[in-house]
Amino acid sequence: MSSWWKSVWPPLMAVILFLAVWQIAVPLFHIEKWILPSPADITKEAIAEAASLTQHTWATVQLTLLGFFIGTGVGLLTAMLLHLVPFLKSALYPLLILSQNIPTIALAPLLMIWFGFGLLPKIIVITLVCFFPVAVSTMDGLTQTDRGMMNYMRMAGASKAQIFRKLEVPHALPSVFSGVKIAATYSVMGAVIAEWIGTDRGIGYYMMLQKSAYRTDRVFVAMAIIVLLSLVLFAMIALLEKILVRWRGADTK
Question: What is the pTM of this model?
Answer without folding.
Answer: 0.87
